[in-house]
Amino acid sequence: MKIALALALVVACGKGGDDKQLVDVKRDDLVLGVEVFGELEAVDSTDVKPPPLSDTWDFKIASLAPEGQDVKLGDPVIAFDASAQIRALEDMRNAAEAAQKALEKKRDDASLTRRDDELKVAEAEAALRKAKLKADAPPDLVAPVEQKQVMLDAESAQLGLDSAKQHAESSKKSDDQEIQRLAEKATYAKGRLTELEQNIARMQVKAPRAGTIVYPTNWQGEKHKVGDSVWRMENVIQIVGLGKMIGAGQVDEVDIARVAEKQAVTIRLDALPDVQLHGTVESIAKTVGTKSRNDPSKIVKLKIALDAAKVPLRPGMRFRGQIETSKLPAVVQVPAEAVFVTGDGPVAYRETGGKLERVPLVLGQRTASAIEVKSGLAPGDRVSRVDPEATW
Fold first, then answer.
1. Is the full-model pTM beyond 0.70?
2. Cα–Cα distance, 360 to 342 (Å, whole number)
């Protein structure tokens, strides 16, 4: 095995490196950092939620304005399914009509009862006057027995009048209470009817400001679509101004101790890989969370203040980059892809005299793209990006 490996190495090292596969060893500052990933958010943003209806907690999306569309104040942006409110409106309209009819009937009945009670009181008053006239006759003109009967009749007439008045008063009080109850019921029904009509109109949500439509992701990392059910406090869309963006980033929990506010950040956008953006760490969350519902990896969220960009940016653009945590000045470094791990330790294949020779390395700090070389290589050396032993 050792003989075969030695022969392969001799053959490999005897072949010159292809210039396209060679990279330079250089002396430069090595920027150490922490990987950060996330997406852009608009600084100037307004959340649009379902309308705050008193008796509705869940809403179903019937239509959405297209993402990226520019809207003006008052433009329709979301429509929610109003079928439940329409059914409730029909039921309440029937209830309001029934309540109004019951109120009108009770008022008519009470009016008839008042007239009937007034007639009975008038009859009782007439009977009392008649009885009093008899009772007021001179005693010498009326026999004692008859006088006694006349007095009893007057007392009976008085009791009849008192009873008629008491019944009329009691009946009026009862009718007034019932009319008040029915009036309150009719008023409530009318108010509820108006409220439902307004609620149906509010199910068509209009833009509270001018801006651009953006679909934010929910806690599951998904954007809302037509047919989805949403909670009354859930953010369905955002209307944003595109003038300034901020980075909503995440770093692994194990790296957070190396991150601090004001550290420099460099990121690249997935949608614009050739564009490099710069900024600084603006704030760091004090709690630890998970990447997503399906990925329990622990992360810490942070905000990145971005410098002005010369390219159009939109919220939701995904990015990946590095937070600068420290810098090693003027160190010898080699691209990470030119270092290979062997059983004897890390090595590189240096071009010497048109051939590749295997060089053992002592390495220091590293980044995703470059590694500090403490010994084994010098600035100006050229090394292979391809392991020649593995290619033969």
1. no
2. 10
